[in-house]
Fold:
Amino acid sequence: MKFKAMTAVAALLFAPAAFAGGADDDTLIVNGDIEMTTKAPAPAHLDGALDEIISGWHFRSDETQQLQTDDFENQGMIFVDQAMDIWDTAEGSEGKACSDCHADPADSMAGVAATYPKWNEDAGELRTVQMQVNDCRVNRMGADAWKYDATDAVSMEAMIASHSRGMPVDVAIDGPVAEAWEKGKEIYYTRYGQLELACASCHEENYGNYIRADHLSQGQINGFPTYRLKNAKLNGAHSRFKGCIRDTRAETFSPGSDEFIALELYVKSRGNGLSVEGPSVRN
Amino acid sequence: MASGVKPRVKAPKKASAGEVVTIKTLISHKMESGQRKDSSGNVIPRSIINRFTCDFNGENVIDVVLAPAISTNPYFEFDATIPEAGDLKFTWYDDDGDVYEETKSVAVG
Structure:
């Protein structure tokens, strides 16, 4: 009797795995206009790890997916609007706004999000979009730098990303950034925390499966910044990394740290070939 | 005025007489419920949109009472019959007394 009850419990426990599906076969078209590449052959450096790279969009429910197909329903676009206001607002000692140098972001920022994080030759460092924005703010505008992944900073990143939507992610991983890329790769495969989980434990070996109630994706960041329904705001990639590492019960790195910049480059390179989706909608 | 409030409406510019059209509205608003406390333990005062209405040429189409449990950036989607050309007037009422308005003209033809 006891054995039977145990078997029943076990069957219930395994039930979700039976329902667990991989990515669905829907097609993502935004505003009836921008056709997204949400599945692509894996880039060469993922040989032996993944055959196909899949956007996180495929792992969400139809209702959540639909929100991203229309800018009016995509609440991430609220923050894009707010960033547009900031874009035109002069700040700092130089009395300059973003628009004074970069004019219309629809032209000047097109394609930017697809290639960042990127090596900056003058500064001799690997830069994310947010670091580049802060460099402008401090050195050209004489304004204060934004804290990493602060609301304004993520909104601006989302606005910049929105002008690259539909373009394939194409970050460079060789040359001066090779060292950072290797470091990011090492972090990706390092098990952290009391639960001893690496990024790869969930997002490479178990994507498509459920981790309790959550449907694991490949952890692609082509859709960042992402509007999450759970906290009703835009989330930066570094904050997401932090959340994941925290969930392994580890001490995490900080948003904006060298470790996360390297990890952002590495994770983004795993999505080379997928369309930029930011701001995407996820749960 | 609560900060960052911006109403948006998506309605067709043109319809045929008697056509049922879908109207979507969204207002960015923090919808602070009044149930939360800040880091020093003080209650954060309630600040929500408490009513939303839509009128067509002065005739009421929809009148909604909003409660504190409604999440941030409230979104409404509803159908309306357009009998003739005219203006859709949308009004949101804030707890702090502010009223946000938006008007969309619909042509018939």
